[in-house]
């Protein structure tokens, strides 16, 4: 009889609502960069760079998109794409390469400061605290949030940034990496996430249980897949599995 030993979680739009976070982070870190550069150059009696929030931001986006095409193995490493795009943009705008590297790094530090300003669902911390008493937990994300600085980091001794593995979900590599670090087999693990393509299908195809967080959807679900509307409903899925005999009690009883 299969015993569920581990649960892996997606982060954005699973444990918190990510709506607006990226927009604020995108606009905020680039505005910070332009304002800081303006002050720095004014103190040096140097003219402003020909970069604006709107046009510069669009160029910054296009440079990232072009880099993702040119270096496809890095397409999911969003921090690398942003950093390289900013370096190139600042150098093209007239900064010496050494200054471009320093200012791009400073802007990415501001990006990550803003990026972790998410608000977990009110139920998330209590739920994860309860789950740690019965299961090993891990986080698997395609996002470039600094995992060690995100609000629920303490509950995830194993945290996988898939882009940094150069294998963003739905590639199985981040799932297999998490399972290896947890020392559990796929059939003894469950993945929870909001994306059908990036979370549910790859987990299910590996033999894991999968919980799909979606407020809509009435299609037939494949084996080992369950749908809930909100993370707070996860305990009901675990109780169902236990009642169906798919999970042994935590004490080890069969």
TrEMBL record:
Classification via Pfam families: Hydrolase
Keywords: Hydrolase, Magnesium
Domain of life the protein comes from: Bacteria
GO molecular function, one term: hydrolase activity
Keyword Hydrolase attributed: yes
Cofactor: Mg(2+)
UniProt name for this protein: HAD family hydrolase
Organism, as annotated: Vreelandella neptunia
């Amino acid at each position: 009889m299969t015993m569920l030993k581990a649960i892996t979680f997606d982060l954005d739009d699973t444990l918190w609502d990510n709506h607006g976070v990226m927009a604020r982070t995108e606009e905020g870190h680039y505005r910070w960069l332009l304002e800081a550069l303006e002050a720095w150059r004014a103190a040096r009696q140097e003219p402003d760079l020909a970069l604006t929030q709107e046009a510069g931001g669009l160029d910054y986006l296009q440079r990232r998109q072009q880099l993702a095409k040119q270096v496809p193995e890095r397409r999911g490493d969003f921090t690398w794409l942003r950093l390289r795009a900013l370096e190139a943009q600042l150098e093209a705008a007239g900064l010496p390469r050494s200054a471009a590297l320093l200012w791009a790094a400073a802007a990415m530090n501001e990006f990550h400061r803003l990026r972790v300003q998410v608000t977990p669902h009110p139920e998330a911390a209590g739920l994860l605290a309860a789950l740690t008493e019965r299961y090993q937990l891990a986080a698997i994300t395609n996002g470039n949030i600094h995992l060690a600085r995100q609000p629920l980091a303490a509950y995830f001794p194993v945290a996988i940034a898939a882009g940094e593995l150069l294998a963003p979900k739905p590639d199985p590599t981040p799932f297999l990496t998490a399972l290896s670090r947890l020392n559990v087999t796929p059939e003894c693990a469950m993945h929870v996430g909001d994306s059908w393509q990036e979370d549910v299908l790859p987990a299910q195809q590996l033999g894991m249980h999968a919980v799909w967080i979606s407020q809509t959807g009435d299609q037939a679900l494949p084996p080992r897949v369950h749908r809930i509307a909100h993370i707070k409903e996860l305990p009901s899925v675990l109780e169902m599995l236990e009642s169906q005999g798919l999970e042994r009690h935590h004490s080890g009883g069969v």
